[in-house]
Amino acid sequence: MPAGTVASRADALRVVEVIELLIDAGQCPAADSMYRNRCDNGRVWKHLPAARLGQRAAAAFAAPPRRATCATQLTATRLSHYMNGVGLFAMNAGDLATAEEYLALGIRRGRDAKETANLAVRLQNLALCLGHLGQVGPGRDAAAEALAYGETAGDRNIIEDANVFMGMLASLVGDTAEAEKRFLTADQIVVREETESDHLYSIRGTLWADFLTRTGRHDSARMLTRSNIDTCRRYGSTEDVARCDQVLGHLALAAGDNTAAGGHLTAAAAVFRDGDYLIELAITLADLAEHARVSEDLDGAERHVTEAIAIAAPRGLMPAQCAALAARARIRATLAAAGDLDQLYSGRDAADAAVRLAARHQLAWCELDALRAHALLDQAEGVDRGWAARAGALHARLVPPGLDPDPLATAERLVAEQKPSRKPRTDG
Prior knowledge:
Helix content: over 70%
Mean pLDDT: 94
Radius of gyration: 22 Å
Distance between the termini: 27 Å
Strand content: under 5%
Order of helices and strands: HHHHHHHHHHHHHHHHHHHHHH
Number of strands: 0
Largest sheet: none
């Protein structure tokens, strides 16, 4: 057996197999001790990363074949921890059905046991899961409930995280004012209380950076993400470093720096693929398809977008699927502009599908991407069916005049006026 915290998938697999054998032998406390010590209580699955192994390790305790044994030998809190672990790692691996099942089960147990802090964490994980599925209404309900628990307990970590997830969900449906308020509220907590980072970091930082990018504050998004990636490297959180690379790649694409975009996106995709982070992989593949398209590698673009759709569509990952369909429509428009007018039909099909899915789930930014893809097809066809005007009107609603050009500086100013006392987060 490897000594200390595992540092490779091979060692991690051996540890998981021993954990399973210990539980089958009725030695749940020994298995729990191994999980705590050798797997850093689950954090190792972020550092490797290894979503499927993390799901398997947590399921060794929480899945029905072994759950009854562990229930009699471990505390209810520990069993709930493993249920949340199955849900979280299943979500990362793109197994959203399992994720919903276990997160909901953990939430019910948390409510029954009145474990407020743990319950809030599970609600936040559920909110993120529902966001990936395009179920924004239920997701906002889950995040709002978590926020209520945090405010009642005065737990600033919960308040920070719940505001971030509420901001992310508000952004998905185009509620820019609400998203702006939520992200700024969360960032002020970091600026006021933390010593580890100047602004939001880890997945919280990348969610805010994505919103800033979409709303045209590219300098702020870049500054935030550069700080974020340094913090994540310091913590050894490989999955979060890859998320930062995905954001930086998207920003480079917007700036027309294809070389930098390709480097960041390729690095992010490699980590997500290796770690079985299928949701993030699908999102990154759609960006890689756009990078290949503008680089005139249309065969590569088609390979990326086909894989992204193959991941997203059967799993019901609505934002990722819409992004991939819009990317496919743009590829077809480029082919049509080069003289292959037969590509217009499949391009329209892809753009239409993206518009319908986005409208059904009220995913405003996804709808904007699809409308712009239709406008590009109009341009290739030499016609004007009004798609560009519709896209312009929607963009004007999503990015209203008067948005704060530097929200990071605003957060610092507001906190300076409040005389901050800085304390580190307890979760690392």
